[in-house]
Inverse folding.
């Protein structure tokens, strides 16, 4: 397996456990989180695609049904009635989202969808001037992030050809080098208005050094935001302490919020009271006391909630609550990550032992640079066929052009046995 092992002295997954001598059955038997699998309804087969759509918590049915029942019995009064009043329902998600992202409660809110939130946050944090107008992204950014950044640049009267900087892996390498990202930021210097990078890269699974990127961005006077689609619920985050300016994420990947589920946004506390920040406004951002008097004077909620536009998608929020409760009960992302590191060590070991150089994982090898997702390339170039055979064998994973099979053992519901069975099946398919 390859990857940018730029610091050979650092921890690799295989060195952290006795994976080599432990069986899947033993690892499952001693796994304190093993019981959490029972909180989910999993499709038939081996579900290894929580990186794309997290599994369904059984409790989602119950919490969504509760809201359907409230709708049927209370009708419009559901907005104002009881502990679950819909007008305040988003607040039920805040503390858990803050814990997962390493934020203060006034810095996070569940709202909208991810790309919508990226746009809203760029309205606020991309403030180009003729001197400082550039946005730095990565060239392999998720297409939606590319489109969002480019259209924001055009919207402000600039040209992506001059104003968009894309950082690339080096020739012959798959993942980005931290030093290259930091150098690109320094090189852009006082022309750099904003950085928009992923916390975890969707294709390779690489975790970017968010704290270092934020610091370097601030050193040159830029604002720094992260797309946390693949990071949230997967790796530990400290958005507040890292001093990140803004972030957004979706909830349907590692947060198991359900298809198209309500997304989230973070704005650092230090920006919240700043009345100078441009912002698109809606009635859900104004204080709720005056909101229902239909006052047309905007009185911002003194938290990130002032970025809210519309009344909230309650059914989706109910589903997400069920999953956030499970994550809390499991001990939060720190506990999940602890198990994930054991799963990574086990998976690395089995892949190396069973498939040798027939399969390459292009994720970085160092633990601190990877989440639970693997990006597997079939060495003989036969990846698409292998993916199709995996599908026929009811292994749920995904194919990403040009040549990667993504699989993610998710510690909340995947067992060590899932990993072992997957490697067995893969071994039977790859020539
Ligand atoms: C999944 C994902 C998206 C999807 O955006 P939506 O607005 O939720 O459809 C965007 N960006 C990244 C990096 C993603 O991984």
């Amino acid at each position: 397996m390859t990857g940018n092992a730029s610091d050979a002295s650092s921890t690799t997954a295989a060195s952290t456990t006795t994976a080599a001598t432990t069986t899947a059955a033993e690892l499952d038997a001693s796994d304190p989180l093993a019981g959490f699998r029972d909180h989910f309804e999993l499709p038939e087969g081996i579900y290894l695609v929580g990186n794309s759509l997290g599994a369904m918590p059984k409790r989602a049915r119950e919490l969504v049904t509760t809201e359907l029942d409230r709708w049927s019995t209370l009708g419009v009064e559901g907005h104002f009635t009881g502990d679950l009043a819909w007008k305040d329902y988003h607040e039920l998600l805040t503390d858990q989202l803050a814990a997962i992202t390493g934020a203060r409660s006034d810095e996070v809110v569940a709202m909208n969808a991810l790309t919508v939130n990226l746009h809203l946050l760029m309205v606020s944090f991309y403030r180009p001037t003729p001197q400082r107008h550039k946005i730095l992204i990565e060239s392999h950014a998720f297409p939606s992030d590319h489109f969002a950044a480019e259209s924001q640049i055009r919207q402000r009267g600039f040209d992506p050809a001059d104003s968009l900087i894309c950082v690339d892996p080096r020739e012959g390498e798959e993942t980005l080098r931290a030093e290259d990202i930091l150098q690109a930021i320094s090189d852009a210097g006082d022309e750099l208005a904003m950085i928009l990078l992923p916390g975890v890269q969707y294709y390779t699974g690489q975790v970017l050094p968010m704290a270092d990127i934020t610091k370097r961005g601030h050193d040159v006077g830029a604002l720094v935001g992260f797309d946390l689609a693949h990071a949230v619920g997967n790796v530990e985050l400290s958005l507040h302490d890292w001093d990140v300016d803004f972030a957004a994420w979706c909830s349907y990947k590692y947060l198991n919020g359900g298809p198209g589920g309500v997304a989230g946004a973070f704005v650092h506390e230090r920006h919240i009271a700043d009345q100078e920040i441009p912002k698109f406004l809606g009635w859900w951002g104004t204080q709720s006391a005056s909101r229902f008097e239909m006052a047309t004077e905007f009185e911002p909620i003194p938290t990130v909630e002032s970025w809210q536009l519309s009344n909230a998608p309650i059914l989706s929020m109910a589903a997400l609550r069920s999953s956030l409760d499970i994550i809390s009960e499991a001990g939060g992302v720190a506990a999940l990550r602890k198990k994930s590191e054991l799963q990574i060590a086990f998976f690395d070991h089995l892949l190396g032992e069973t498939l040798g150089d027939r399969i390459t994982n292009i994720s970085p090898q160092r633990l601190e640079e990877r989440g639970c997702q693997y990006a597997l390339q079939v060495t003989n170039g036969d990846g698409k066929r292998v993916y199709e055979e995996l599908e026929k064998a009811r292994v749920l994973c995904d194919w990403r052009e040009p040549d990667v099979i993504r699989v993610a053992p998710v510690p909340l519901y995947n067992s060590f046995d899932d990993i072992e069975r997957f490697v067995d099946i893969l071994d039977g398919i790859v020539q």
